[in-house]
Design a protein that fits this description.
globular; about 15% helix; about 25% strand; about 550 residues; 5-stranded mixed beta sheet
């Protein structure tokens, strides 16, 4: 059999449904839809009526009154927010396509800080009618200083994506490419976006009694931006990007709505100092007048060109600061460990990464490897790394050469050959040797998985009547997983609100395609009605 024609399926369930295999609903966005947040709010309100606009606005109004009564508004201090940029590219070298240069990312971060603190050079161009309501938010966005596992970071993660581009309905897939805990990091995903959307952001939730667990979609919480409209880009279509798409979406992330209220003159953005408008604005018509007043087309929450935007208002500031001080996953950002330099120890040896979360083949051959890094201040002269297969010690590698502070090396173990068709866990452990002890142990172990897959000839049919035979289930998170249901296999996700972004894998046998010109595959599936997008990934 020619090896390159061997194939197997990795079927992942993402987000929440009950299925017989898997179905997906993709929400489309028209080419004219610059920002996807109205769709997001509509979708969320259908799914969770208790998170309605009315409920959220009641919550935020009460919190704003409390701020005024306790004089909090006059005691505002600068808060910092740790940001991680997930650059999801298509394998290009840095500086090409979506794999953006650090200088462009730096400039985007500067633009956010300028716009949110009224330090933008074009602030002086704000129309005279609106200058007295212009506001600085006293919010500083900084690169995260330490990663979730405590390693030093520059706040930029570069990952080749599994897709060429991503639509709004695929945001759970995009966030699963690279994600840091949303309680501690403001995730900003930068990718090639489909369907004409320049970006979107997850709207904050309130902590009203009974609602704190109502929308626990922490795994997709953040801001998403099309790389073409990220930072300064004079070659962006429609208008020249100056990084204001990020400013606009960041406003949504902190609770701001479009200034026309996504309706007509009677619609409300819940900020009294932004004049009512009957629609969004494009270009830069500074004399645009609707709803019997001059429109604030220069507001960052309109759809005008980047060069036209230059103002947030006092009421927008009050709204944002109320969210920062009270909404659970916004307030926690201001207290995040990501704002602090990683802990420094004299001797701290840790494991930085593994091959992948899933590896499989029909040969049974697997080459384990791991990267070890000296995070401590002192050189490390003696250490060992152990390899375990299904919890049993398989190999120990001893090292007696020097690993300097900040230095890392990739370690290769002996080739493993798995004979039995089975599912294997492979773990690594690093330990100091000699007279000294490792002063931090929480970064000393890593885990990955391997499947020895069984070959099957075609044509092939699997009905899952009473067993899964040579298929394997991957339940890395230990949560809900695949189960047998009356001649079908499915995951009981329906109405489970804790599963956002969760992935459950089922892996097929190996198939021989060498005798087939055009291989075909089909699934028979059923799905309970659900508004959250879902996807089968093959």
């Amino acid at each position: 059999m020619t090896k390159r024609y061997h194939s197997f399926l990795k079927i992942f369930i993402r987000s929440g449904i009950f299925i017989s295999l898997l179905s997906f609903n993709i929400l489309t966005i028209s080419a004219q839809e610059r920002c996807a947040v109205p769709k997001l709010l509509e979708e969320r309100e259908k799914k969770y009526p208790e998170l309605s606009t009315q409920q959220f606005e009641k919550w935020i109004t009460d919190k704003q009154k409390l701020r005024k009564n306790t004089s909090q508004r006059d005691q505002i201090t600068l808060v910092q927010i740790p940001v991680v940029f997930h650059i999801i590219h298509n394998g290009e070298p840095i500086g090409t396509g979506g794999n953006l240069l650090k200088s462009r990312i730096d400039r985007q971060l500067e633009t956010l800080n300028e716009d949110f603190n009224r330090l933008n050079e074009d602030a002086s161009e704000t129309l005279l009618e609106f200058q007295e309501v212009a506001a600085s938010f006293e919010i500083e966005f900084i690169y995260a200083k330490q990663s979730p596992d405590g390693f030093e970071t520059n706040g930029i993660v570069r990952i080749p994506g599994s897709q060429a581009n991503y639509g709004y309905g695929e945001r759970a897939i995009l966030s699963s490419e690279s994600y840091w805990p949303a309680e501690d990091y403001l995730n900003i995903w930068v990718a090639d976006l489909a369907n004409g959307s320049l970006g979107w952001a997850e709207f904050p939730v309130s902590n009203l009694q009974g609602l704190d667990e109502a929308s626990n979609n922490r795994l997709i919480d953040g801001v998403t931006l099309d790389y073409v409209y990220f930072g300064d880009n004079p070659n962006s279509p429609s208008f020249e990007s100056k990084g204001r798409t990020a400013t606009h979406e960041m406003g949504h992330f902190f609770g701001l709505r479009h200034i026309w209220g996504d309706g007509g003159c009677s619609a409300d953005d819940f900020c009294q100092d932004t004049p009512a408008s009957n629609s969004s604005s494009t270009g830069c018509n500074l004399s645009k007048t609707t709803c019997e007043s001059l429109d604030m087309v220069q507001n960052f929450m309109d759809y005008t060109n980047d060069a036209c935007m230059n103002i947030f208002t006092n009421d927008q500031k009050s709204r944002v600061r109320t969210v920062v001080e009270n909404s659970p996953r916004r307030k926690s950002l201001t207290e995040s460990k990501g704002l602090e330099n990683p802990p420094v120890f004299n001797r701290d040896l840790g494991l930085a990464e593994v091959n992948s979360q899933y590896t499989g083949s029909c040969s049974g051959n697997f080459s384990p490897q791991i990267t070890v890094k000296n995070q401590g201040l002192f050189p490390i002269n003696e250490y060992s790394i152990q390899l375990f297969v299904n919890g049993e010690l398989t190999e120990t590698l001893d090292f007696n050469d020097t690993l300097e502070s900040g230095e890392e090396r990739t370690v290769y173990f002996s080739l493993l050959n798995f004979v039995e068709t089975d599912d294997y866990s492979i773990s690594y452990s690093v330990n100091l040797k000699g007279a000294f002890e490792d002063e931090r142990l929480d970064n000393n172990e890593k885990l990955e998985f391997y499947q020895k897959l069984q070959e099957r000839n075609l044509p092939y049919t699997k009905k899952f009547q009473n067993n899964i035979d040579s298929w394997f289930i991957r339940n890395a998170d230990g949560e809900e997983t695949w189960q047998l249901f009356d001649e079908a296999i499915g995951v009981p996700f329906y109405e489970n609100r804790q599963n956002f972004g969760q992935q459950e894998g089922i892996i097929s046998p190996i198939f021989d395609f060498t005798t087939i010109d055009v291989p075909q595959i089909s699934f028979v599936f059923a799905q309970v009605a659900d508004s959250i997008p879902n996807r089968v990934s093959i």
